[in-house]
Specification:
16 helices; 4-stranded mixed beta sheet; elongated; 600 residues; alpha+beta; 52% helix; 9-stranded mixed beta sheet
Length: 600
């Protein structure tokens, strides 16, 4: 499932990755003038300067004017088609015009007919451009048919009118050719779109074109409503559990750890992608406490379907405060390791705080079943509950996913850690916490708005630190650097978490679709900030009590394993099918159009 998802998200980098509008206009000017200048240099009795003038008047100005008109008049209300993206679409059109002009002019130079092949190549390129614009606009815009048709045709028609003015020798036969070629290629485009659309309806019950429009609006413009509407139709209802640990001073919580048993995805601002920061912000606003939201054991099957579902969960978390019943005693942290598999446990009052990591082995989301098994084991061991954290702190270029055997090894490490510490005597403790939001790191760098939270627990014998970074996983080796840096401050043991926030996903082009912590940001600056936060937490240690609470939010709609598998597989498979269909559908249509144009 995650393989399909990563592959689907990676396609984001090919969506609308365009330079600025000014740059596009400059490229258009150079492209149209140079390509037509080159083309006219092949034609007898014509000059390069004439070709440059032709390119500017026949293609550059019509494109700029038509882009402005369509964006202002026909595509008003469509947030996706900005003037910049219209110019990007025109850039491809002008590439087609330019190539066809050069090829047609070169062929004309070898023939006895002065402008015949050159003019025919321009006619054929009109059909190509129209068909391409249909594919792009029909697949991405949700506006009405009439407005889309006007947007598709206006630019090619503007260019065609100027071409006719330059070459008045075009006759009825030429107009028949352009009509036939356009119908042929448009027909191929329509067949292509319907085949792709029907594949989505057969697979998940939703047309692939509608789903693609929703994805594009979410990826390119950050508008999640269309995609969430589709997800809501597919989602399934479950009960979601959320664990809270509140560290109190005089009955008031000053530090809260929240670990939801759901996944903060699928990307950017869709579904539950923003939930770590949303919980952090709203719970902090209510209580005044520093809040951290590490990642629980959950995969993309537990992505919430919409903002409405997200608000339902957040409201339940906020309303769960205050937590009744607190304890003054905790144990030390105990860590158990076997090969790559590492688990720690620290008993806080009557609950276990369990952390899981496979670093330095690259690992993605740990399965929900692992968290449930360890929670049950904690209850069977006489505790009131357990907070199970997937540290989510090591990834290389390709993430590996735990096999059943690997999961069992990690599970046994965690169980052994619980066994070793569950019956230890609890001692009074002090707690310190700090929160830093680095101004120098942005979401494009992989750092979410929640920043860095360091929680330090001090007993008579040792100091334990938990560092939570608002990001999606961490580059291999960064965890170990942070551990070394913190332990040098006098910390006996610690663990580093990321929230697995997906607000950093699908923001800019990258191989994964996001940057893990430590990949793009300056690691030295990151270490300095974490050391600073740890020192601050150590400086504000205070006698504390800890309270645990498990809340259950009923009938929350999530994507579900089957649906997320089908959706992500659909996106990836369609991207691959496009290549095959392009050959089987468009190649015969192109051959027919070229043959008729060349020999008729």
């Amino acid at each position: 499932m995650d393989d399909y998802l990563n592959s689907a998200i990676s396609h984001y980098k090919s969506l609308f990755n365009l330079p600025s509008y000014r740059t596009l206009v400059t490229i258009l000017f150079v492209l149209t003038s140079v390509s037509e200048g080159v083309a006219f240099s092949f034609i007898k009795y014509q000059s390069i300067l004439t070709g440059v003038a032709f390119g500017i008047t026949a293609f550059f100005f019509p494109c700029i004017m038509s882009d402005f008109v369509t964006q202002r008049a026909f595509m008003r209300g469509d947030s996706l088609f900005t003037l910049r993206r219209h110019a990007g679409l025109s850039l491809f059109s002008c590439i087609v015009w330019g190539l066809s002009s050069i090829i047609g002019a070169a062929a004309t130079n070898l023939s006895t007919t002065a402008f015949d092949l050159f003019s025919k190549s321009l006619l054929l390129s009109f059909a190509f451009v129209t068909a391409f614009r249909f594919l792009i606009i029909n697949s991405t815009s949700s506006l009405g048919t009439g407005r889309k048709v006007a947007t598709i045709l206006l630019q090619p028609l503007f260019c065609f009118v100027v071409v006719i003015a330059y070459f008045p020798i075009l006759g009825a036969k030429d107009f028949f050719l352009i009509l036939f070629d356009t119908i042929t290629l448009l027909g191929a485009s329509i067949v292509f779109s319907r085949i792709i659309d029907s594949y989505g309806k057969r697979t998940i019950g939703i047309g692939a074109i509608d789903l693609f429009k929703a994805f594009v609006n979410s990826w390119a413009e950050g508008i999640p409503t269309g995609l969430e509407y589709q997800f809501e139709k597919l989602g399934e209802e479950i009960d979601v559990e959320i664990d809270l640990l509140a560290f109190e001073d005089c009955e008031n919580p000053f530090a809260i750890m929240v670990v939801p048993a759901l996944h903060p995805g699928p990307f950017r601002n869709v579904g539950s992608s923003t939930i770590p920061y949303d919980i952090q912000e709203k719970l902090s606003n209510k209580t005044g406490a520093v809040v951290c939201v590490p990642h629980g054991t959950a995969g993309h099957e537990l992505d919430l379907t919409s903002a409405g579902q997200r608000e339902k969960v957040i409201q339940a978390v906020v309303e769960s405060i205050p937590i009744k019943g607190s304890f003054k005693g905790i144990t030390r942290m105990v860590r158990v390791e076997k090969d790559y598999f590492k688990a720690s446990c620290q008993v806080l009052g009557r609950s276990a705080l369990v952390t899981l990591t496979c670093s330095p082995r690259s690992t993605e989301d740990l399965p929900t079943s692992l968290g449930k098994a360890l929670t049950k084991f904690s209850l069977d061991s006489g505790l009131d509950g357990a907070v199970i954290i997937d540290s989510h702190n090591c990834i290389e270029q390709e993430a590996s996913f735990l096999s059943m055997a690997d999961t069992l090894v990690l599970q046994e490490c965690a169980k052994e850690a619980i066994r070793r510490v569950v019956n230890e005597k609890r001692s009074h403790f002090e707690c310190g916490v700090s929160h830093i939001v680095p101004e120098e790191f942005s979401m494009n760098d992989g750092m979410g708005p929640g920043g860095i939270v360091v929680l330090v627990l001090k007993t008579k014998s040792d100091h334990t630190a938990y560092v939570t970074i608002d990001g999606n996983n961490m580059i291999k080796g960064v965890r170990e650097k942070i551990l070394e840096s913190i332990i040098n401050l006098g910390i006996n043991d610690c663990e580093i978490f990321t929230t697995d926030t997906h607000v950093v996903n699908a923001i800019g082009p990258s191989k994964r679709g996001y940057h893990p912590i430590g990949e793009k940001i300056d690691q030295k600056k990151l270490l300095d900030l974490i050391r600073k936060a740890t020192q601050e937490a150590l400086s504000n240690l205070r006698v504390a009590k800890v309270a645990f609470k498990k809340i259950k939010v009923k009938k929350v709609k999530v994507l579900g394993e089957k649906n997320i598998l089908e959706i992500t597989r659909l996106v990836d498979v369609i991207m691959k099918k496009i290549k095959t269909l392009a050959v089987t559908i468009f190649l015969p249509a192109i051959i027919l159009a070229v043959a008729l144009t060349a020999f008729f």
